[in-house]
User: Fold these one by one.
Assistant:
Number 1:
Amino acid sequence: MDVDIKDLSSLIGKEIGMSNWVEISQERVNQFAEATGDHQWIHVDVERATKEIGGPIAHGYLTLSLIPFLSAGMLNVKGVVRGINYGSDKVRFTNMVRVGKKVRLRQKLIGAEPKAGGMQIKNECTIEIEGEDRPACVAETISIIYTA
């Protein structure tokens, strides 16, 4: 979706996009464990996780960290030269993502206001799991975008 920065407020409350499905592989989970030092067995010990909980699951923070990747290109604000992550509100992990499942992002704009010489935008981000009724994660993310 393409929009001028001055028109962002007209999109508040509207869904701005949905990503493609992305598979959560064991390799991705292992790489996240290496990057963060979180090697809890429920994520990386396939044999034990399969025996005790039906299979390994993705880290909640791995799921959350996919938001920038999944949202890329969803909302193209004309003239933006850079954007920064400002924070998150109300992050909830509402369902576990089993390794081998696919996830996608559904995003809704819930706020847009001038801030720090740019425009602060707030999105409701819902990460859905293919074939599941409950999403993996619901988070309100905050970014600031800047124009030239």
Number 2:
Amino acid sequence: MMNEATASHCGKTALVTGCNSGIGFETGLALCELGFRVIVHCRTRDKAESTLNRIRERFPEALLEVSVFDLSELKAVDEAGRKIAAGCDSLDVLINNAGALYKQRSITRDGLEAHFGVNHLAPFHLTKLLLPLLKKSNRGRIVNVSSVNHFVGRIRFEDLQCEKRYSWATAYGNSKLAVICMTYELARRLEGSGVTANSLDPGLVSTNIFLKEGTLPKKILGPPMNLLFLSPRQGARTSVYLATRPEVEGVSGKYFVRCRERRSSRASYDQETAIKLWDESERLIADIL
């Protein structure tokens, strides 16, 4: 039986990146339960098919579509974004959830430091491609998943690609700071459009990329870590909250933790840096494409 919450979202469309596991999967699952048509993004076709099967085991009538592309290749992001834009009348929610962490300095096929390319530049470009669809929606929402690690990040224009010095913690933090800076700048540029943009920290989640084999928390905590960290379902709550709840309709340019508005780092509010990063990001994308 359709309840009031489900009825209010029927007919709406959401795109969730990184939907095959962890927070992304639980976010997609929750949106299906609420009646959304969900565009499931995965990096490979096999992962996409597995994700569809898992969701349909829970919700056989779920309205699902697939978008397969690799966030480490800007041309693939560009092609996919344009295909989605051409195939949809409107988009109600875009959740830029996908992210990656690299213990060693890695380079994408585009020649970008991988954290910068995957966690920042790819969702930045995808969002810009889908803005016309979001503007066609009745109060479209953009939700960007960042991390508490943005507090250790710095936007160093003389070394955006971490060529001079590298550690996975700072490179990851830099990319997640860039996500918040761009969210705030996007919110400023979208004023009056009806589209909102917010960012969030999902918390420390038991399947978080920081807890993979070989990273410090896993080594120190071992099995007890599952008692200390959020489940993927719990980690998805703030994303779903920002995507669906009426109390945040019209709220834009904010940072949320556990479904509550919080202050992000001091560096994230530097508007001059945000504008410069926006311009530099556009330049890099134009050079690659």
